[in-house]
Amino acid sequence: MTAIRSVVLGCGSYLPERILTNAELASRIDTSDEWIVQRTGIRERHVAAEGEFTSHLAIKAARAALHHARLDAQAIDLIVLATSTPDNTFPATAVAVQEGLGINHGAAFDLQAVCSGFVFALATADSFLRAGTYKRALVIGAETFSRILDWNDRGTCVLFGDGAGAVVLEAQTEPGKSSDRGVLTTHLRSDGRHKSKLYVDGGPSSTQTVGLLRMEGREVFKHAVGMITDVIVDAFNATGLTADDIDWFIPHQANKRIIDASAHKLHIAPQKVVLTVDLHGNTSAASIPLALAVAVKDGRVKKGDLLLLEAMGGGFTWGSALVRW
Ligand code: ACO
Question: Out of 11, 22, 115, 194, which one is annotated catalytic?
Fold first, then answer.
């Protein structure tokens, strides 16, 4: 029995030019390179320039993904953009991307699941493609978290960075087995009881301001590993695949300690883990496609490889995906 699968045709990313190092942060606030590296694994992050918006980063990442896929933008009929830092309250940043790419057919919309945004967007696009509603999708994670940080709060401002990553998906008929190429399974979860542990203290309906990120770091840490590993086990159970089958673990890049603990609990060898948190920081919805683009570009990820993606973030939201490249 055959199945329609969302096969990845290409991926791409973009990072703003400006690099902000731990040393530079330590010259401004009461922190140190040693503290940040030890607690998070982060050494530096990129910060968008004045006048450089989330849509600008997203358009550059989308163009890179289309180039990698050797596809003209006109072939795309769906854009799903995951972000918590849209250009404006509305319209969706996705329509600015659509316009920037010169596309005026199909649909484009934003999706908000904070750091889990890319996995949620991938699952959403995959559902539309498998249903036959659209044929080719751009799934983008793009963020300018530097705009919603309290630069005086050392507990949060050292953690995040700006960037964008994108993948191009195409609906293709595959044999319907776990050896198929494409998105094999996705699993999404959320639990609003945790909404006050990681949030932005503003919004159009509540304060009529944008607000700044607030976080109970320890609380987030406490729940992260359990939630991540549970939803990965769901992905294994749904496909019959196991940790041994994984070629590359490409997690949301929040914190090296969370990533290491999750990989350890799942018995995934450290050499299979793609790590970019040291150079990118936590770029929220952009972190997975940014890491993916690095591992594809340097030749680690090859056709036929099995990728395990996972993320956890504000809400809480969390999710996993198994994708054969
Ligand atoms: N530099 C130096 N000292 C700091 C800094 C800093 N940047 N930030 C906090 N501290 C101090 C605190 O003030 C505190 O000092 P005190 O003991 O004198 O009061 C001490 O360090 C310990 O603070 P904690 O917040 O308890 O430190 P913890 O070990 O929990 O590390 C951290 C903080 C790194 C935020 C950790 O809790 C964490 O990684 N949590 C996960 C959060 C996360 O990854 N969020 C990303 C979004 S969600 C996601 O993507 C999964």
Answer: 115
The structure's pTM equals 0.97
125, 143, 174 - which closes a domain: 174
How far, in Å, is the centroid of ligand 1 from the Cα of 282? 14
- Please say if 152 is a catalytic residue: no
> Ligand 1, atom 3: nearest CA belongs to which residue?
31
pLDDT per position as a tens digit, 46-74? 999 999 999 999 999 999 999 999 999 99
Ligand 1 atom nearest to 255, measured from its CA? 44
In this prediction, residues 78-84 reach a mean pLDDT of 99
**Domain end position, chosen among 142, 174, 206:** 174
Q: What is the pLDDT of residue 42?
A: 98
- Residue 1 is predicted with a pLDDT of 85
What is the tens place of the pLDDT at every residue in 139-162? 999 999 999 999 999 999 999 999
| The two three-digit tokens of residue 127, written as one number | 């559902």
Q: Are 295 and 301 in contact (CB under 8 A)?
A: yes
Residue 172, φ and ψ in degrees, nearest 5: -135, 150
Count CA atoms closer than 13 A to 292's CA, side-chain side. Answer: 35
With H, G, I as helix, E, B as strand and everything else as coil, classify residue 9: strand
What CATH number is attached to the domain comprising 138? 3.40.47.10
Which CA distances in Å does 242 have to 129, 239, 306, 323, 324? 26, 9, 11, 13, 14
Residue of 11, 56, 194, 282 marked catalytic: 282
Dig out the tokens for 13 from the structure: 């990313």
